[in-house]
Amino acid sequence: MTINPIGDTLHALDLIAERHKALSSNVANMNTPNYRRKDISFSQYLSGYSSPLETSLAQKMGPSPVSIETSDERIDPAKELSEMQKNSVLYSVASRRMTSIITEMRTVINMGSS
Predict the structure, then answer these.
(1) I need a surface site. Which of 11, 55, 64, 107 has the fewest CB within 10 A?
(2) Lowest-confidence segment of 3-12, 15-24, 61-70 by average pLDDT
(3) Is residue 45 within 8 Å of residue 70, measured between CB atoms?
(4) What is the pTM of this model?
């Protein structure tokens, strides 16, 4: 069980936003000479969550820790857009998690004020 679910979810949302920036930068610079492809991997961070969906997504993303990776591989726009779509799914999961946490907090507050 997570001790700080709001903080952890905010951290995940921040990481997802950073990955989106890296992926969109790759698309924007695909014809820039000497540009190195960037990506951010955070599957190990997500695998710490207790949700089976989040754990499954983390396993599909690979075992690497949170890190900024650069490579000399040629940028494939289709691959970058596919990765952006995967990132959107992760954002959706994290935002639903935050909504669930807030809903639970409202329920507790409303029960306590009755």
Answers:
(1) 107
(2) 61-70
(3) no
(4) 0.69
